[in-house]
Amino acid sequence: MAKRITIDPITRIEGHLRIDCEIEGGKVTNAWSSGQMWRGIETILKGRDPRDAWIFTQRFCGV
Amino acid sequence: MEIPLNAQYIRNLMMGAHATHDHIVHFYHLAALDWVDIVSALKADPRATANLGQKLSSWHGNSYDAVKASQERLKTFVGSGQLGIYGSGYWGHPAMKLAPEVNMLAAHHYLQALEQQREINKVVAILGSKTPHIQNVAVGGVANAINLDSQSTLNMERLYYIKTLIDKAGDFVENVLLVDTAAVAAFYADWTGHGKGVTNYLSAPDMPLDTKGTTFALPGGYIPDGDVSKFQPIKSYQDAFFKDNVKESIKHSWYDGDWDRHPWEGETVPKYTDFQDKGKYSWVKSPTFKGKPAQVGPLANVLCMFAAGHEPTKKYATKMLDTISALAGTKVGISALHSTIGRIGARSIRAAVLYDTLKNQWQALVENIAKGDVTTFNPPTFPSGEQRGFGFHEAPRGILSHWIVIKDGKIKNYQAVVPSTWNAGPRNSQDALGPYEASLIGTPVNDPEKPLEVLRTVHSFDPCLACAIHVIDKDKNEIVKVKAV
């Protein structure tokens, strides 16, 4: 029977990532990638001046 | 609207320097310890380690004294009984296969890389006022004053300092990073057969060279099914091929509904359900290009640039593959890049290409200023009514696109489709696996309690999910919980 493992959090990355794997016969047979946080910046930006958007969003992906 | 040439070059210098910093940090500080055993490095003979380093590269930092000093530092650290950041590594894991001297050389460069990544990031700080969170970008250009007669603006002293930093980083990238990643690839050649996953590759053209953004120093585009002969370029910031083919699915994401939508029509209304294997299980949406998942990142970028016949990419890809082949004692071709180790190798190839680009962009900026052009900003105008726009950039982890709907000068909708969304996304509306998920299928796992191999593949993408508010921290129903460092 497949063994289920959960790696949460994955470290040595930026952010909060959970990976679940099913392992059978010494190999991964199924996997789930789960981002463990909500960004919400899109909501914050609504109604603002478009010239300000870059300074809110500049650190998306890559700190 | 048009962006002044100086502003394009200054932005390009910042993007290239930031990416170089990021690629150095990724390999040495975020990924290398999945392959390099720090405890084994302590057993290495420092003289043999220095000899190995000098055989592999002309890098000036591989002297016996320098290697010995690094080993002493590590011994002091380990001897203190407080391993700190090295505390939970999988040292001695059967999948760790490097000789002590190779481990020591990599550990030595790990310490040197801390200094190197800091130096190249100074370019970002000089031009952007600080880093991270630069202050100089503006819609319409940059807020950098250029006056060669002033000590308080961008002048030749600052520009030559930037050039020094670029050349210093380039030396490290070409003679250390590229060589070390080739060596890891050669010594773990079996990993060219693991981690392929999604082979639809998407990347953005970047480093615009004219005021309208119609020519780029670095090509980008789309490769379906891993077949470089099917490469289709993205030609400009207005290209409908990109604009019309991006969608996001939320069937398996913690947002309200079940739809595939273009980002201009996208919504971000949270609906948390707990982790459901067959339902919703992630805060990340699932982007598609032409209805399919796509892998993004340096590998996608390098394959697209290679397919486009980009000469610097061909030069450094050849150098990387030749070095791997020589060390592995067998011919390794570009198809080996469709793998976990290929993603790491491609990141080094891209870093080397960026060194060429940084040199060229520096030269272009200086020559343009020499013509008497000091313009850096064209004020934007926002027509009344509803406007739609988008922008893209080849970020360190891959293609980044931001989509905006503006109504009467205010933001009506904004959606960011970031690189880690493409790669870390869950299953899409067709239940097709995302790139992380697909790449893990078939990965060998020696010991499920110590899933080092899973980390190797996940880390090879350089995950970055830190963009916001951490709202949940719970997990249930797992059989084994592993906290991995």
How would you characterize this protein structure?
The complex is a heterodimer of chains A (63) and B (485). By secondary structure, chain A is α+β, with helices and mostly antiparallel strands. In chain A, 16% of the residues lie in helices and 40% in strands. Chain A is built from two helices and three strands; from the N terminus they run βββαα. In chain A, β2 (17-24) and β3 form a beta hairpin. Chain A is elongated and about 55 Å long. The N and C termini of chain A lie far apart (41 Å). Chain B is built from 13 helices and 14 strands. Chain B has helices at residues 5-31, 38-41, 46-56, 64-79, 100-128, 156-187, 240-243, 298-307, 311-328, 340-370, 419-424, 435-440, 452-460; strands spanning 137-138, 141-142, 201-203, 206-208, 216-218, 221-223, 232-233, 246-249, 260-261, 286-289, 386-395, 398-407, 410-417, 480-484. The termini of chain B are far apart. Mean pLDDT of chain B is 93; it is low at 467-485. Classes of the chains: A alpha+beta (63), B alpha+beta (485). β1 (3-10) of chain A pairs parallel with β14 of chain B, so a sheet runs across the interface.
Distance between the termini of chain B: 47 Å
Question: What is the molecular shape of chain B?
Answer: globular
Query: In total, how many beta strands of chain B?
Result: 14
How much helicity do the residues of chain A have? 10-25%
Radius of gyration of chain A: 18 Å
Number of helices of chain A: 2
**How do the helices and strands follow one another from N- to C-terminus of chain A?**
EEEHH
Q: Give the radius of gyration of chain B.
A: 23 Å
User: Order of strands across the biggest sheet of chain A?
Assistant: 1-2-3
Class from helix and strand fractions of chain B: alpha+beta
Q: Estimate percent helicity of chain B.
A: 40-55%
Strand order of the biggest β-sheet of chain B: 3-6-7
Percentage of β-strand residues of chain B: 5-15%
